[in-house]
Here is the input.
Amino acid sequence: MQWQTQTADYSYGKDLAVDRNKVLRNTYLLLALTMIPTTIGALIGVSMHFMLRGWVGPLLFLGVSFGAFFAIEKTKQSALGVVLLLAYTGFMGLWLSQYLQVALRFGNGGQLIATAAGGTAAIFFTLAGIATVTKKDFSFMGKFLFVGMVILLLAAIANIFLAIPALTLTISAVAVLIFSAYILYDVSQIVNGGQTNYVSATLQLYLDIYNVFVSLLNLLMAFSGDRE
Here is the structure.
């Protein structure tokens, strides 16, 4: 009887590990796929000089984002969830084009973008590797990161009115730290079974990577931008 129980426990543990690896694999595959509509959206935005100023931009961004979050969450168990996710990343690419256009005004704009992309990739692969290899549970970070993200969002909204350059740089620097830590947290959630849906997992990691890239690009433009 004891042997049968041990065998059943072993089989259950093995099946659980297979399921988690499947979620992680599907997440990485879909994450790679999201880069296609993001790139297309960014190229379209740059070519058409897409730029929104004032309150129109933030309101549009928040409206589309929260609507997309709700719709993706409701359809995450179906193929429609994947379609909506890819459509949203296309919008995010269009939104990203505004930052890219600012960077391209610098003499070394292309280099700044490439450096931000390389830095983001290095951060992602390093932290994702740590979470995957060590299998350590980083769920204890969740509450602290959420509070930090809320404070960061409030500071960003306040800075729309204040427009303080030093605060802008501080927000970007803190954002790099918070969303880098979120990469570690989100991958750990998949590895340890806290996240079992690859569509939701992909959305979370996509937003982590997106915010790290934009924040790094802002910092590079401020400190290394060649204004000619």
